[in-house]
Amino acid sequence: MSDNTTPFNERTLELEEVGPDTFLSIDLWQPKGNRGVFGGQVIGQAMSAAGKTVDSPYQCNSLHCYFLASGRTDEMIAYEVRRIRQGRSFCSRLVIAKQSGRVIFMAMVSFQRPEPSVLRHQYTMPQVPPPDDLLTREEHERRRREHAGKRADLGKMAEFNTLPVEMRHIPMPKDQQGLPINAIWMRAKGDMSGLGPLHHQSMLAYASDFAFIGTSLRPFQMNQPDSKYKLSMSVSLDHTIWFHEPFRADEWMLYTMESPRTASGRGLVLGRIYSQDGVLVASTAQEGVIRGTNLGGDDKILEFTNNIIRTPGNISKL
Question: Which of 59, 236, 275, 283 is catalytic?
Fold first, then answer.
């Protein structure tokens, strides 16, 4: 039986219909230190807007979006949906997000009528510690700062508590720290059993932006005091999600991430999202602007083999 029984807060993704196929956000969140509104919230709201123009039984199979400018919290975002195509198996919607008449985000969202398939395969879910054996995000952040000799950031702790998503960080063993890989458990806070597939997909879209582009920075270990690299900018350019199977966003899901390349001021990250019973329910990809300086003078490429262990086999204590 699930212990996630508190009421789900729908405000994060809730939209107000203000015209034909036009919707307005009612809540926006700018994380501490971010340049603008959290990108995952814009993605989730855009998917929700597109879904409101699609009839059952169509469900989202993919979303491809671009971040064109930072969103502000002093003005709600307007989402305009254009009905590009309505087919028997698939339909497409274009979502344009605006603030003060300026386009800040665009997404192409595809919906599919569910159909059976005898052709199926997937990558096996990696073996990792279960979420109940891991620290909460708040506990992990406190331990991390203590390890670095810093006091707890009470503002950041309070921010974690207000998020609609719960996360458990999976620590990497020492011999894997510095590899371009990452893994977390995540789920929506609260019971979503009474909500339809669109709510679960929009919530997963929201959550899929957490800890993602940062995976491309892991080889440079900027959180270490002896790192010769210093970050000057990290911001998402685009984001893609492919949905493979139905799932519950309020149940634990494993999110594995890897970054095959960082170059030309950009980082690329690929992700896989598994339900707790091992089904690959979604795949993700994101590219972002990654800029920094090398204080050591050596600018050689950091290279890794393509058969690196993508998730830890042992937990390292922070």
Answer: 236
12 CB-near residues (< 8 Å, 6+ apart): 27, 29, 41, 44, 164, 206
286 tagged catalytic: yes
> 238 an active-site residue?
no
Residue type, 69: A
Task: Please state whether the peptide bond connecting residue 57 to the residue before it is cis, i.e. omega within 30 degrees of 0.
Answer: yes
Closest to 122 measured CA to CA, from 236, 244, 217: 244
The CA-based angle 101-103-107, given to 5 degrees, is 135
Q: Quick one: 221 exposed, middle or buried, by C-beta within 10 A (0-12, 13-18, 19+)?
A: middle
Cβ proximity of 25 and 80 under 8 Å: no
| Torsion, Cα of 22, 105, 65, 191 (10° steps) | -60
Per-residue H/E/C for 274-286:
EECCCCEEEEEEE
Set 202, 208, 209, 259: catalytic member:
209
Answer yes or no: 221 catalytic.
Answer: no
pTM for the full predicted model: 0.90
pLDDT per residue over 72-126, tens digit each? Answer: 999 999 999 999 999 999 999 999 999 999 999 999 999 999 999 999 999 999 9
Q: Which of 41, 48, 259, 286 is catalytic?
A: 286
Q: How far apart are CA 8 and CA 25, in angstroms?
A: 18
pLDDT above 50 (res 306) = yes
